[in-house]
Amino acid sequence: MFLGVPNIASQTIDSSIVCQQARVISDDVCKEPNGTFPVPDDCHKFIQCSNGHANMMPCAPGTFYDEKTKLCDHMTNAPPTCK
């Protein structure tokens, strides 16, 4: 059995899927213990804080981090300061 999934004996993983890597950074950048926050000098990345621990995360290619929605959005919606 596959752990956590009843009646599943095995799992096939698609090797073509590439996950973006998080980069662990200094925890003092977290404005709050949990949440996402913009990276001041790079609109294509954001800081994800979990229990006070910070990771820098990239948005997918062709997107930017929107501080208002706290999501990565398509570049057609990006402000002029984000290239």
From TrEMBL:
SUPFAM superfamilies: Invertebrate chitin-binding proteins. GO terms for molecular function: chitin binding. Keywords: Chitin-binding, Disulfide bond, Glycoprotein, Repeat, Signal. InterPro entries: Chitin-bd_dom, Chitin-bd_dom_sf, Chitin_bind-dev_reg. The keyword Iron does not apply. It comes from the Eukaryota. Residues 27-83 form the Chitin-binding type-2 domain. GO terms for cellular component: extracellular region. PANTHER family: CHITIN BINDING PERITROPHIN-A (PTHR23301), CHITIN-BINDING TYPE-2 DOMAIN-CONTAINING PROTEIN-RELATED (PTHR23301:SF0). This is Chitin-binding type-2 domain-containing protein. It comes from Gongylonema pulchrum.
